[in-house]
């Protein structure tokens, strides 16, 4: 860790940060998106990419190194002049080609020296990208090779004697323990930026639940101060979720590859130009043109590809601004709530993150709720909670999933430590409509607020209890509230608890311990 | 009904339609947004509003009529030339001023004649906008006045002898039965376009649940072929929900009023310019400027107001294109799913629409589920189902709420009518992992698919059963599936039913009739 990254602000596990890039004598604000520039085929000029909002881009040093036309010019002019881009340039090493073709002809020392020589600001060693679902033996042995190369990289002159930042990719296929170990080992090299590698197949197959697992396992092995790059993540539909997990850098070849194929990015998925009757976007391209205008152009035309690529980048940078504004404001999880509705697989990833539900079919270690509620298994909500600010703007309770947000987890953990004097009695009840008789003999009055559960009156005006909630609660909000009551009751075995509710479903209140005295205000008679 | 409106395509209750405007010798595609132009204060020139996407706008004939400067020019040049707009012009009548100031100085005959004389394409009588929560007596008596005026309007020369379309506003405060009756009476006048009036206070106070009630009650009283205008609805955050309920026309003064106040519209709510560090948008304004650029301008400056108004219109027309593309594609409810996460009050409106949950506190007629699940009361899902296409692109199951979509309601209604031969036995089970022994003695094998429930194998490849679903189900998906099984079982008392599930929560399967033989495949032993 060479200390080139600073976190300025957290929301959930996401952060606004600053990556110092000494060689470019500048800083990059994160989260950042690095458009991928193919040295041979430029759908958009790099200078234009800069105009559209890129502070940093990524190109492939292995392609430059292997090109008879481009190698010498890259060495002579430097990669910035060659591309005509005056921002920060990161270079990849050929690992992708290694994964695709099985071998490449350079070593880590050679390619890092070349990256240094062409003036790259952020260089990359030749790691081994083990694909998802590889066997454990393969994953472990390739990880050992990757780690050797990272250690080599850390001691090359390119890393040691130059101010080029060097990345330390984290591999380990879909084995969480290997990802965590790989991350710890990568961090121990003292290199600068940590790409989570070989996740493109997971994203391509919409395996967002597995992606959550891989990212969080990798994060567990990294120090909190490590800048994390989600390698190959370029679809704006997943930026909010990935940032909420603590990813700082993204790169996108999609904007150009998709454009060449007539595909159109949106935050709700990918559309094919031929399927659009209206442009579902307000970017400069989509306000100037109709789909019919582009459909009328030749599929191979540079103009059509350029316009689609510009749209694709506009929506990507626009989404990044939305994510940054949400981070700043403290409503990143509200944005995630919205974004995951784009596809059931994203909902699945979000549920995995929050520990909701589980595929019980082929999974031995699934846990179940007591005898009610959906099956649950541990999520990563405690890891989100650790960096989530104590206070923010108003909490918006907008779905079943939001009943499992870090704020509710944190409150429940507090309830489990809440120490009430033995022998006292408390009433947990709504703020209004409670007959005075119910307060008789009660020492303390708590509020009953789904999805939080019991809330001390003194905290009612504090975050998150000033939440905006729908009048119509879903089952998950009741369940979370009951869980909160259980936590408080279990922590205080010597306290008498009366709870008054307004017609809550019997199946929900059945989850409360017997010793809670229940009153249903909607029928005005004790439940039991 | 003069037959000037044609529905081209439905999704849920939303429609793509064509409003014929004889006087303008053109048609308007719906859903359409009518920017409001104040004749005295033009934040944006009407011609510029046309460039930004408006085919139709609305201005106030009462203001023109009462203006010493503008009345004569309006009569001489016509309203189109006066405004410099060559699209369709609708005019309002002064009802808003009536509501604000208690009286106005024109009659319906006078103002309609004036609207006709200035060349308006769509005119409006002077209805009485009864505010939400008015008493029933007030609402009924004002409704009687409104209806008299609509009948007057229908027989004025302005309506009878001209090809100007005339609107018939629907009032009735927050009384569903009055709204329904008002709509029926309005339709009986033979007028052309049906604004749902006096809903601005509901939207201003985020009472989207009440808005849903008012809109659906009004729709019940109107023929399906009536074009419906949601008067005063100009915030893009609610377009998708309003269109899904069958609203066709919207008008926006917000784009300009908000701009003058430094407020910035997004599909996720309203921001104040001063609170923005990044523009969460990709429109031409937001890609050319940073918030700091606009913050540096004088609050009163025309430039700042113009830029904010242009952004506000870009995002409004962009959202309208997204809604139209979703209508065309058949995924409007998926878009609604996404949009309602912007605010708990929108979630509440969506839950009201689908009949999920209920505020049990002050509402006598709330119904409850058996003894489990959230309290429910009737929603409007049957009304969405009536016009929802039988087949579409893939169904995306993306939330607890989506378990109550029209597709699931329709399937459950079918199950309740499904007639299996008496004496047969069926197995309802997942598609995989079912031991052969379970099929012994079974006459028919059905699939068990949350959130749908039991699905005949022959339909498994048809919409909506090809749904994309998360691997992790929420409680609502299980509940809906169990409800489906109950429907089938109850409809077939003479049929033996065995159901095999993979570790479903006990509280969920407890809702099944005793005679269903349950097998939990995750424990491989019969449940009972």
Class by SSE composition of chain A:
alpha/beta
Helix content of chain A: 25-40%
Largest interface (CB < 8 Å) = A-B, 84 and 84 residues
Total beta-strand segments of chain A: 19
Indicate the proportion of strand residues of chain A. Answer: 15-25%
Cα end-to-end separation of chain A: 60 Å
Number of helices of chain A: 22
Q: Radius of gyration of chain A over alpha carbons?
A: 27 Å
Oligomeric grouping of the chains: homodimer
Widest sheet, order of strands of chain A:
6-5-4-11-10-9
* Mean pLDDT figure of chain A: 93
Low-confidence stretches of chain A: 359-377
Large-scale geometry of chain A: elongated
Query: How can the largest sheet of chain A be summarized?
Result: 6 strands, parallel
Structure at a glance:
2 copies of one chain form a homodimer. Chain A is an alpha/beta fold.
Structure explained in plain terms:
Two copies of one chain form a homodimer. By secondary structure, chain A is α/β, with parallel strands linked by helices. Chain A contains 22 helices and 19 strands. Chain A has a six-stranded parallel β-sheet with strand order 6-5-4-11-10-9. In chain A, strands 16-15-14-17-18-19 form a six-stranded mixed β-sheet. A three-stranded antiparallel β-sheet of chain A has the order 1-2-3. In chain A, helix 1 (46-51) links the parallel strand 4 (32-37) and strand 5 (56-60). In chain A, helix 7 packs parallel to helix 9 (176-188) and helix 11 packs parallel to helix 18. Residues 359-377 of chain A have low confidence and may be disordered.
């Amino acid at each position: 860790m060479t200390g080139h990254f600073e976190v300025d602000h957290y929301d959930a596990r996401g952060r606004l940060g600053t990556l110092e890039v000494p060689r470019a004598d500048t800083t990059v604000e994160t989260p950042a998106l690095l458009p991928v520039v193919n040295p041979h085929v430029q759908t958009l000029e790099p200078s234009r990419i800069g105009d559209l909002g890129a502070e940093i881009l990524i190109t492939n040093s292995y392609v430059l190194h292997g090109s008879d036309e481009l190698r010498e010019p890259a060495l002579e002019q430097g990669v910035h002049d060659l591309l005509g881009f005056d921002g920060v340039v990161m270079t990849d090493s050929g690992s992708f080609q290694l994964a695709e073709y099985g071998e490449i002809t350079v070593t880590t020392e050679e390619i890092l020296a070349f990256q240094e020589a062409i003036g790259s600001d952020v260089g990359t060693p030749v790691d081994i990208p083990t694909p998802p679902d590889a066997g454990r033996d393969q994953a472990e042995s390739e990880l050992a090779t990757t780690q050797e190369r990272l250690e080599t990289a850390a001691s090359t002159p390119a890393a040691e004697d130059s101010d080029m930042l060097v990345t330390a990719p984290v591999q380990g296929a879909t084995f969480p323990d290997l990802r965590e170990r790989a991350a710890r080992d990568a961090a121990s090299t003292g290199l600068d930026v940590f790409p989570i590698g070989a996740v493109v197949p997971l994203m391509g197959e919409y395996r967002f639940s597995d992606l959550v697992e891989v990212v969080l396992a990798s994060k567990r092995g990294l120090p909190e101060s490590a800048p994390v790059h989600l390698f190959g993540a370029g679809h704006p539909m997943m930026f909010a979720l990935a940032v909420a997990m603590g990813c700082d850098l993204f790169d996108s070849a999609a904007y150009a590859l998709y454009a060449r194929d007539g595909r159109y990015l949106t935050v709700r998925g990918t559309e094919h130009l031929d399927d659009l009757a209206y442009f579902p976007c307000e970017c400069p391209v989509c306000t100037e043109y109709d789909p019919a205008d582009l459909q009328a152009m030749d599929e191979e035309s540079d103009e059509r590809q350029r316009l689609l690529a510009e749209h694709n980048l506009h929506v990507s940078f626009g989404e990044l601004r939305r994510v940054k504004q949400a981070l700043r404001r403290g409503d990143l999880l509200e944005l995630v709530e919205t974004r995951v509705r784009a596809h059931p697989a994203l909902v699945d990833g979000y549920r995995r993150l929050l520990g909701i539900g589980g595929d019980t079919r082929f999974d031995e270690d699934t846990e179940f709720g007591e005898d009610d509620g959906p099956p649950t298994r541990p999520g990563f909500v405690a890891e989100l909670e650790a960096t989530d600010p104590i206070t923010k703007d108003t909490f918006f309770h907008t779905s079943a999933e939001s009943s499992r947000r870090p704020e509710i987890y944190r409150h429940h953990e507090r309830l489990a430590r809440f120490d009430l004097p033995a022998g006292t009695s408390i009433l947990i009840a709504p703020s209004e409509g409670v007959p005075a008789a119910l307060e008789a003999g009660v020492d303390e009055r708590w509020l009953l607020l789904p999805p939080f559960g019991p809330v001390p009156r003194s905290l009612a005006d504090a975050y998150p209890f000033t939440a905006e909630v729908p009048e119509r609660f879903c089952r998950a909000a009741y369940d979370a509230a009951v869980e909160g009551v259980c936590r408080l009751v279990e922590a205080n075995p010597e306290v008498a608890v009366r709870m008054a509710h307004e017609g809550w479903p019997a199946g929900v209140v059945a989850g409360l311990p017997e010793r809670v005295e229940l009153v249903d205000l909607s029928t005005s008679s004790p439940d039991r």
